Amino acid sequence: MPELPEVEAVRRQLEPVMRGATFDRVIVRRPDLRRPFPPRFAARLRGQGVRELNRRGKYLLADLSSDETLIVHLGMSGAFRVNGSRVDEDIHDHVAFVMSSGAVVTFNDPRRFGLMDLAATASLDEHPSIGALGPEPLSREFNAVSLARALARKTIALKVALLDQRVVAGVGNIYASEALHLARLSPSSPAGTMASSDGSPHEAAFRLTAAIKRVLRAAIARQGGYRASRFRVYDREDERCFTPACTGLIARVDQAGRSTFFCPVCQRPQARRRSTV
Predict the structure, then answer these.
(1) For residue 161, how many C-alpha atoms fall within 13 Å in the half-sphere facing its CB?
(2) Active centre residues (catalytic)
(3) Model confidence over 75-112: pLDDT tens digits?
(4) Among residues 14, 139, 132, which one has the least CA distance to residue 83?
(5) How many CB atoms lie within 10 A of CB 18?
(6) For all residues of the chain together, what is the average pLDDT?
(7) Rounded to 5°, angle at Cα 234 from 74 and 58
(8) Distances (CA, A) of 180 to 41, 98, 150
């Protein structure tokens, strides 16, 4: 499933042809994706301009002149394609936006786990998909203090906790593994070890928030992508750890039904330190 860097790459791909343009035609070829399209979906978009094209976590948000926001989630297999003026009819092309910019923006989704919805912009934070999201990981609001507060007293594994979009928005399976390796933290450590008994952050929380920001910025800079050669641990089982002077080989375990990649040498679980305060 695309994570924050890949969704940001899609946003940047679509922005030049959608921002400032209007929907001349909207072609919807089926009644639903993961969920049914909202009532009068095509009619509510037609003739509306796109003021801004933003991203919130793994969601694309098109701010419309109708004071509604088009909410898009790519799901597991969703992808956008930008054509000239040609409207394709591939079996998995479920929605086509014909823009006044002259581009046709087509949404292709073989598994149909994507999502499209419309919501009033003024109450967007009350939308069930958007309102529950945690802080953006590249924002100032996401820091060691906010992470420790979100994870305090949680006993689930740290890697599993990071996949909870209420803790931090946009981080998924790949970049959680990457950040934990960079921070040299065990994915199986209890999530609550990021915080002291009073909820203040341990030193590890500072390392982890810095690592999350670093791996996401690096991935955005290379425009997303899933080539294994670009990853520190993800999809590198039995290969040598990249950490200098580390002799470990990357291992894989299942956590909450997802594959976690880590180095058992430089990411060994450490005993929780007692607060000296």
Answers:
(1) 24
(2) 2-3, 58, 258
(3) 999 999 999 878 878 899 999 999 999 999 999 999 99
(4) 14
(5) 26
(6) 94
(7) 20
(8) 41, 42, 17
Q: Order the strands of the 79-83 sheet from edge to edge.
A: 23-28, 93-99, 104-108, 79-83
Which two structure tokens, joined as six digits, stand for 112? 């149909």
The span from the CA of 136 to the CA of 57, in Å, is 6
Distance, in Å, from the CA atom of 72 to the CA atom of 117, rounded to the nearest integer, reads 7
pLDDT at 221: 92
**Is residue 2 a contact partner of residue 77, using CB atoms and an 8 Å limit?**
no
**Domains of the chain with CATH codes:** 4-126 (3.20.190.10), 144-262 (1.10.8.50)
DSSP characters for 8-29? Answer: HHHHHHHHHHHTT-BEEEEEE-
Rounded to whole angstroms, how far apart are CA atoms 97 and 109?
15
Do the beta carbons of residue 3 and residue 174 sit within 8 Å? yes
| Residue range 205-210: mean pLDDT, rounded | 98
CA dihedral 174, 191, 124, 219 (to 10 degrees): -30
- Quickly tell me which residue has 């996949």 as its tokens: 163
Tokens 């009644």 label which residue? 31
CA 46 from centroid of its chain's CA atoms: 28
Question: Token pair for residue 89?
Answer: 């009819």
Distance between CA atoms of residues 177 and 167, nearest Å: 16
Whole-model pTM over 0.90: yes
Based on its alpha-carbon atoms, the radius of gyration of the chain, rounded to whole angstroms, reads 21
Q: Residue 101 phi/psi, 5° resolution? A: -70, -10
Residues 6+ apart with CB under 8 A from 86: 104
Q: Are the CB atoms for 184 and 15 separated by under 8 Å?
A: no
